[in-house]
Specification:
8 helices; three-stranded antiparallel β-sheet; four-stranded antiparallel β-sheet; DUF3027 domain-containing protein; alpha+beta; 311 residues; DUF3027; Nuclear Transport Factor 2, Chain: A
Length: 311
């Protein structure tokens, strides 16, 4: 027997076992026990799963599971006459109504979804964050860097020089104070990637390409209501403090603008109307007869005029 023939026989699904295929009542009882009363419908199919293993399919009458089927698998041991129950499960059919694919909460979360009492943990390797300054990298007091001031003093004593103003020894609290002032004394701070994401998000909502900014008389960089930010983001963003502005209390781009600009408080003077080209209020005087010296009246004879109509 060739290997191809062996593979074809192994892959071939055997015919359903007769005793297992006839155990429809046993399969229905198992399905009705797992489901609510009146949910198991008609018997629709019998599928052979292997030697002496058969699955019976029943329609599901539950309105919430349209197109689903109850699948009850029964089996029989070799040379045994009794069919036993294997498992009962509800499976979707080809036209079943399925729920959308599950998405992790970190991908489902949208701005504004958090409410009071909700916690939003961040991953240890969050690309938006990076370690802050904890003081572990600070040089110890007896190191070469920390003892630089002492070396200058020793060198001055060897040269018999008198130092009137000696540099003060740097203490451990000075670097910590600077880090605290810069906002770096935290376990983690925003990374460059996190800063870029925030800048893109803020610029999209309150940036120079918005319709409000396009119609503004001036940008926020010259507005008195702009509160500067700290850190590197202050080069491009600030906080609006105008209660009548649409971005009050929001981070705005320095190139953003609105009608509430501090220097736009003085209303422009209304334009003067253009004088009428035709004065319709003046009365023009016209003579009923033309003047004698206008050249339109024929000259009269000096003598008496003959009446040509009478003899």
């Amino acid at each position: 027997m060739s290997a191809a023939t062996t593979r074809s026989r192994t892959a071939r699904t055997p015919a359903p076992d007769r005793l297992c295929a006839e155990a429809v009542d046993l399969a229905r009882e198992a399905a009705e026990e797992a489901a609510a009363p009146g949910v198991v419908g008609e018997h629709v199919a019998v599928v052979s799963e292997g030697d002496r293993v058969v699955t019976h399919y029943f329609e599901c009458e539950d309105p919430g599971y349209r197109g689903w089927r109850w699948a009850v698998t029964v089996a029989r041991a070799s040379r045994a006459k009794k069919v036993t129950l294997d498992e009962t499960v509800l499976l979707p059919g080809s036209d079943a109504l399925l729920a959308p694919e599950w998405v992790p909460w970190s991908e489902r979360l949208r701005p504004g979804d958090m409410g009071p009492g909700d916690l939003l943990p961040t991953e240890a390797e969050d690309p938006r964050l990076e370690p802050g300054w904890t003081g572990e990298d600070e040089a110890p007091p007896n190191s070469a860097v920390a003892g630089l001031t002492g070396e200058i003093e020793d060198l001055a004593d060897l040269e018999d020089a008198e130092l009137t103003t000696r540099p003060a020894r740097s203490g451990r609290g000075e670097i910590a104070a600077i880090a605290e002032e810069l906002g770096m004394r935290r376990a983690r701070v925003l990374s460059r990637y996190g800063l870029q994401l925030a800048a893109d998000r803020w610029d999209e909502e309150f940036g120079p390409r918005t319709p409000m900014a396009q119609a503004a008389p001036a940008t926020c960089v010259t507005c008195a209501f702009l509160v500067p930010m700290a850190g590197s983001l202050r080069q491009a963003f600030g906080v609006c403090a105008n209660e009548f502005a649409p971005a009050d209390g929001r981070v705005v781009s320095l190139a953003y603008g609105c009608g509430g600009h501090s220097e736009a408080a003085v209303m422009p003077k209304p334009p003067k109307p253009v004088p009428h080209a035709l004065d319709t209020w003046r009365v023009d005087e016209y003579a009923l007869r033309p003047a004698e010296d206008s050249g339109s009246v024929p000259a009269r004879a000096d003598g008496p005029t003959e009446d040509l109509g009478h003899s």
